Amino acid sequence: MISFAVVFGIACIGLAMALNVYRLIAGPDAVDRVVALDTLYINAIVMLVLIGIRLDTGVFFEAALLIAMMGFVGTVTLAKYLRRGSIIE
Amino acid sequence: MIIEALVAGLIVVGGVFTLIGSFGLARLPDFYTRLHGPTKATTLGAGALILASMLHFSTQESVLNLHEFLIILFLFLTAPVSAHLLARAALVRRVDSVTEGSDTADGHRRPDLEPGAGEPAKVEVDPVPTDDPSLATDGP
């Protein structure tokens, strides 16, 4: 039962990542692209967790945690740059 | 068996919510509405999926396995912060919204964009008091 659910979940996340890439390419403003990147990294974390369940390993946990931390830093940096035109004042 | 069903249900719910969040990001009409999908639906979906992973590994190894809770904590703390920063950046950049011209960068209404701006201000005129009750109306 879990294996079917994991396959369904991976399909959902893959479709969601494709929609994010569509918004990343088509976004009319730069902030739309930043939001698309933000959602894309959250979906990447979730995809890693699902692949971890599927392969029955815990080795993807550290990668998911690192993506969560670094992705937040990247989003904050891009938002500050878009707002002020400089990152460090 | 019950735990297995719970894990499978959480995975399905999480996948559907994450898909709904990204669908909202792709389909909603302007930036400010688009921001809602990732910050709410995707965060809930990611929380459900990571909870499923925690349950799965806890039952499989018969040891309470809580370190994936760090990811949930981090995502739930950072999603509102990044959404707030991005919304402020969009306000500063004057990104178009579907209800156009209601907000400025400093958060005030712009009077020159409100409907009826530029027309002379309407002066409220008291209705002339009459003795005839049939002519006394409350308004036009």
Outline the fold blueprint.
The complex is a heterodimer of chains A (89) and B (140).
Chain A: H1 2-26, H2 30-55, H3 60-84
Chain B: H1 2-27, H2 31-34, H3 36-61, H4 69-92
Helix pairs in contact in B: 1-3, 3-4
Assembly state of the chains shown: heterodimer
**Any idea what the radius of gyration of chain B is?**
27 Å
Question: What is the distance, rounded to the nearest whole angstrom, between the alpha carbons of the first and last residues of chain A?
Answer: 54 Å
Count of DSSP-assigned helices of chain A: 3
Instruction: Please tell me the overall pLDDT of chain B.
Output: 78
- Secondary-structure element sequence of chain A? HHH
Q: Output the structural class of chain A.
A: mainly alpha
Number of strands of chain A: 0
Largest interface: A-B, 49 and 52 residues
Beta-strand share of residues of chain B: under 5%
Main beta-sheet annotation of chain A: none
CA distance, first residue to last residue of chain B = 71 Å
Using the alpha-carbon principal axes, give the shape of chain B: elongated
Please report which band the strand proportion of chain A falls in: under 5%, 5-15%, 15-25%, 25-35%, 35-45% or over 45%: under 5%
3D shape of chain A = flat
List keywords for this structure.
heterodimer; A: mainly alpha; 3 helices; B: 140 residues; mainly alpha; 0% strand
What would your notes on this structure say?
The complex is a heterodimer of chains A (89) and B (140). The model of chain A has no long low-confidence stretch (mean pLDDT 90). Chain A is 85% helix and 0% strand. Chain A has one domain (2-84). Chain A has three helices and no strands. In chain A, helix 1 (2-26) packs antiparallel against helix 2 (30-55) and helix 2 packs antiparallel against helix 3. Chain B has 140 residues and is mostly helical. Chain B has a domain at 2-98. Chain B has four helices and no strands. Chain B has helices at residues 2-27, 31-34, 36-61, 69-92. The longest helix of chain B is centred in the first third of the chain and has 26 residues, at 2-27. The termini of chain B are far apart. Classes of the chains: A mainly alpha (89), B mainly alpha (140). At the A-B interface, helix 1, helix 2 and helix 3 of A face helix 1, helix 3 and helix 4 of B.
